[in-house]
Amino acid sequence: MGLLDDKIVLVNGGSQGVGAAIARAAVREGAVVAVSGRRPEPGEALVAELIAGGGKAMFVRADLADAEQARDSVAQVVEAYGRVDCLVNSAGLTTRGTLLDTTPELFDQHVAVNLKAPFFAMQAAVADMVRREEPGTIVNIITSSAHGGQPFLAPYVAAKAGLIGLTRNAAHAHRWDRIRINGLNIGWTATEGEDATQRTFHGAGDDWREQAAARLPMGKLGQPDEIADFVVLLLSDRSGVVTGSVIDWDQNVLGGLD
Questions:
Q1: What phi, psi does 93 have (nearest 5°)?
Q2: Going by fewer Cβ within 10 Å, which terminus of the chain is more open, N or C?
Q3: With contact defined as beta carbons under 8 Å apart, do 191 and 180 qualify?
Q4: DSSP 8-class letter at 190
């Protein structure tokens, strides 16, 4: 459909999982895509795949736990292409911790990746858009757990709940600049990272996806490609004037009780 024709899109944390799916969907819709990640191997492999399919893409090596590298991820895209039109913050740290056992170090790691990195990437992207006096769009990938979440996700919930507030604050601050900023609270999703998390922290076996799907209303986990299509819509002009929205993309209904 060409929803993102000629747009320059940066997907931070885009080398695997939901971020990689968003990168693929954006290329299909006509965008030039940059993906950032800490590890070059998956990022460069994804870029090679996108280019082999006829797309335009680049990899930006960045450890998003470092605020300066988060800002620099935007600067590298601006240097390469002259601008950034769309930013997706999809990186996430999901290591476990409760209120009682979370250390200051673990808490700081969650804040660095899940809140501080999006803040400073948004700062750099919005500055570029304002400098050029051109509109732009940003989508933050958040989590349905930000509404409260499980006890073992205390630092993750704290940081991601902050990202909800930041999304709304930034959207309000820059609506007159025609910069639209929205968020997506995604539920339990079938990604490489979730597979590693389930095996590492919950002793899951090879059939954990099937077992999880059987317990869910729709009979399946969230799918990265479906999330990606929705993100592309939010990035595109077809989402109209929508800004400051944080949308629950999940099969469990907030406030619903059985």
A1: -110, 125
A2: C
A3: no
A4: -
Q: How far apart are CA 37 and CA 232, in angstroms?
A: 20
Among residues 232, 129, 121, the alpha carbon closest in space to that of 167 is found at: 121
Give the pLDDT confidence of 203-231 residue by residue, as tens digits: 888 888 888 888 888 899 889 999 999 99
**Cα–Cα distances in angstroms (integers) from residue 134 to residues 31, 85, 178, 230, 235, in the given order:** 17, 8, 8, 23, 14
* pLDDT tens digits for range 71-116: 999 999 999 999 999 999 999 999 999 999 999 999 999 999 999 9
CA distances from 83 to 105, 136, 226, 248 (A): 35, 10, 28, 30
The Cβ of residue 200 has, within 10 Å, a number of other Cβ atoms equal to 11
How many other β-carbons are positioned within 10 Å of the β-carbon of residue 104? 8
Rounded CA-CA distance 126/137 in Å is: 9
The values of phi and psi at residue 12, to 5°, are -80, 135
pTM value? Answer: 0.93
Contact between residue 107 and residue 157 where contact means Cβ atoms under 8 Å apart = no
Distance separating the N- and C-terminal Cα atoms of the chain: 41
Q: How far apart are CA 167 and CA 171, in angstroms?
A: 6
Name which of 158, 162, 246, 185 is nearest 18 in CA terms. 185
